[in-house]
Amino acid sequence: MNYRQLGRIKTLEFFAWAGMQMGFQFDDCVFEYMADFLGAVEKGRVKDAHRPFTTLVPNVSADSDAVQPAVAVFWAVHEMGLLPSTFVIKQLISELCQLGKMEEAVKLLKLVEGRKQSCVEEGYSIVIQALCEHRLVEEASHLFGRMLSQGMKPKLVICNSVISMLCKLGNLDDAKRVFEIMNKKRFLPDNFTYSALILTYGEARNWEDVYCLLIEMLGLGLSPHFHTYSLVDKFLKDNAKLDLLFKLERKLDSQILQKLCKAGELGAAYEKLKSMLENGFYPPVYVKDAFEHAFKKSGKLKMARELLEKIENDCKPDETEIKSSE
Fold it and tell me: What mean pLDDT is predicted for residues 20-36?
């Protein structure tokens, strides 16, 4: 534990001598220190009420030789029936992935799978993301499926990595399948998820799915990027679907108005609703209520009254229609 004071040579000599005396029957703590000592170049504070210490962790960057001693210690520890801490395992997996040593990383992950549950889920996330970056489809898909089959819930960034990889490779059916799995297991998608799918469906000239995905995206309160929205807008115009374009514009305007009200940007919200009404767009009831509530909360309901009354008057059923229906 005092290797910084002893120096490298004396520390190794002491470890070798003590190991010979004890038949190398050290506990996990000693092996963690040796793994850190052999493979480390960066400090990181680890707080523990029982045994506080500063641990050294591998940070090898492009130097593949630097991590090998730490990996060798890991396998030596494993052969003795021991495993280092969760922190050390995750760090080794991460460094192996950064160096592109994917087979080693997967091998290490599978080895600890049944013994160190505290690091398995994060270990899967690290490896799957790296596999996606290297576009190793079969390996990434296999681990993703294995993760789901064991009841683990992948983080959104992992689902997005898999979908993005499949989209970039043109595997639209598989990307759609992953998206359906997300919906089935209630993994809430984000802007990145929808944008990747919309752009890929766009390349396939599938305007129906592109439109449905954007409507679904808006329904979740997500705002599309300009390029994403422009792509859908162009598809609808090219296919003469002006009714759907009108519906899309109305939904997007309602979402923008609601967000302005929520953010307290009342001046912009007023101008937005005024513009919508001038173009014959009437927001849904829940958006109108949000608009009214925001102005009422700020003591500026009088300012909004004119627009609210216009909505009420324009949307009020005609008396002759009421009589005829009776």
Answer: 74
Residues 36, 53: one domain?
A: yes
Q: What is the pLDDT of residue 318?
A: 46
Do 264 and 292 lie in one domain? The reply is yes
Does residue 233 fall inside a structural domain? no
Same-domain check for residues 222 and 246: no
Give the domain extent around 13. 1-84
Mean pLDDT across the stretch 201-215? 88
| Cβ neighbours of residue 67 closer than 8 Å, sequence gap 6 or more | 39, 58, 60, 92, 95, 96, 99
Q: How many CB atoms lie within 10 A of CB 46?
A: 14
Asked if 256 and 303 sit in the same domain, the reply is yes
Determine the Cα–Cα distance for residues 187 and 29; give it in Å rounded to an integer.
38
Report the 10 Å Cβ neighbour count for 218: 18
Q: Residue 287 to residues 86, 194, 278, 282: CA-CA distances in angstroms?
A: 48, 24, 17, 10
3-state secondary structure (DSSP) of residue 56: strand
Q: Which residues contact 136 (CB under 8 A, 6 or more apart)?
A: 102
Burial of 7 (0-12, 13-18, 19+ CB in 10 A): exposed
CA distance 199 to 194: 8
Q: Measure the CA–CA gap between 207 and 239, rounded to whole angstroms.
A: 8
Neighbours of 57 (CB within 10 A): 21
The structure's pTM equals: 0.69
pLDDT of residue 55: 41
Instruction: Give the three-class secondary structure for 152.
Output: coil
- Count of domains observed in the chain: 4
State how far the alpha carbon of 320 is from the alpha carbons of 10, 36, 194, in Å.
100, 85, 46
Tens of pLDDT, residues 172-206: 999 999 999 998 888 889 999 999 999 998 888 88
